[in-house]
Sequence to fold (199 residues):
Amino acid sequence: MTAPHSPEPAGRILVAGIGNIFLGDDGFGVEVVQRLARHPLPASVELLDIGVRGVHLAYQVLDGCDTLILVDAVHRGGAPGTVRLIEVTGQDRAAPAGVPVVDGHRMSPDAVLALLETLREGTGGCVPRRVFVVGCEPAELAEGIGLSPPVAAAADEAVELVLRLLEDGPAAPQGGAAERRTAAPDSGVATKGRPSAPL
Fold:
């Protein structure tokens, strides 16, 4: 389920939905990308329904892209259904201490970005100029398929947020619209069952 994209990596934008659809709200990123597929998108945009296949995503990114937008359930201490836009800076892309770089079932945004850095060092591949995380505070992460009501309601808000990012282009967002990643080790985006990550 990909939109056509330009062959020039300099303008390529990847939007990747991350998460396990069998763990309730952890499937948020996958749901958002599926909804985005119903919208007309710029030719430079490629949608990726990644799920827990973070290694696959890393190699897709290393093929070359200007901007990477990760969509995932994230813990930031807000009410369930709270949607956030986080811009990840270059110095924040290294592997956090104690987080395994490769774990096919625990691919938080931090783990994906750490894997990217590891593979880039080994292959000389390209890394994105800008990285954003569109995250939603989960309500329920127990085994089961389907989003909780507040997170399901937030999916359309996340879709609109991604569409605004794509419309505004690589200069977006302006005026501090995206929060910066915090360095505190307990402010992770990781959901339960994933490694703690300081995004």
User: Anything to note?
Assistant: Residues 149-168 form the longest helix (20 residues). The two ends are 28 Å apart (CA to CA). Residues 1-8, 95-105, 172-177, 180-199 have pLDDT under 50 and may be disordered. The helical segments are 28-36, 54-62, 109-123, 149-168.
